[in-house]
Design a protein that fits this description.
single chain, 9-stranded mixed β-sheet
Amino acid sequence: MNILPSVIIQLLENFRPLMRVEVFETFTLLLTGLLVGEAKHGTVRSSVFAPADYQPARISDFFTTHRVSPQKLMARLTELVLRLCHSGTLPKRMFWIADSTHTEKPYAEKIASLGVFHRTKRVVGRAKHLKGHCYVCAAHLYQHLDARGRMRWSSALCGALLYVKGRSIPALVGSLATQLRLPEGIRHVWIVDRGIISRTLLRALEAISQFALGRVKANQVVYFAPRRQPKRGRKKTYGQKCRVDQLVKRFPDRLRKQRGELHVQGKERKIEIYDAEVLLRGVHKGRALKARVIVVIVPGLKKLKPWYLLTTDIELEPMEAVRAYAGRAEVEVNFDEAKELGLGHYQGRSGSGVRRWAVLVCISQSLLKLAATGLIKLELPKLNWSWYKREETVGQVRRRLIERCRPRISRNLDETPIVK
């Protein structure tokens, strides 16, 4: 029983070549259950949309037995999102967001009944900020017109990897950038926060000809290129060094100043931008890595500390970099939407199932997000709530989709005459 709109069914056909016929049927049922809300509290409940001869045990087989590659699903989802967002004409530069979900109960012995998530007992001397398991997610950042005709940032999840002890989150971001199979010939810029930008991430992205844009700590040390070289001996690789929070005071002659406007704390405010090309030490052995440091100051907000941004894309304009980093907060909205779909509700006992479940949630969130921003045209009934006027949010689009897919009950039929 296929209750989804025909547009979504046609989009799901893009994933058919990645699996067998019977597996694709289960895949469609699971996505139907996620979109309608039945699979959140139990994946087997997706079988209510299946024909009478369908065996519910095949739902569990999708997560444990069937050969389904999460990497291929993420790559095909990325291709689909790019085609819908850019209408076949890709821009010269694309922005991607990488972040990790928050981890609840970092010292739990076992999380969600999974054997791969064992946490040993509390050890004296171990750091208290040690995290448990989480998901490292990637999202495509794009612009769209809102209801008022203004350009706004939005993002759609394109993939997720499982983080457990053994590999760092920056290393997983590099693996995620590789597994998405992004189109070549385009400058891909990954936007990350202070906890993720590191030498490991910069090294991994440079290996695949991609770039990073992130916020660094105030004590980050950068180097300028040497102005003079000695006449004899080995040439200098690095010049003067400085912390990023002291650049404006110590080296104002080496910084380029710009002015602009940015939406900060609910208003359009004037900002001051200082930028300079610098060198980073320790990323590669024996050679420096070129980067651009950007200092953002909001004069109207004295209590707001400056932003210290760092990007390895030298050709990226500072104002464009600042506006793109301001859109990084969209991934936090994506996490809320994914958790509402059931990101943390999977109760399976296999590691492969946990990894595949996150990809299914990403596909569902992307379809709803693209529909909410008008890139997927769906004919859905309006709810017309007096206490909530917006109809184009992800949550509201999902409720409208549930209203459309809900089977009609007997009150819509003609009244049966009473025989006396």
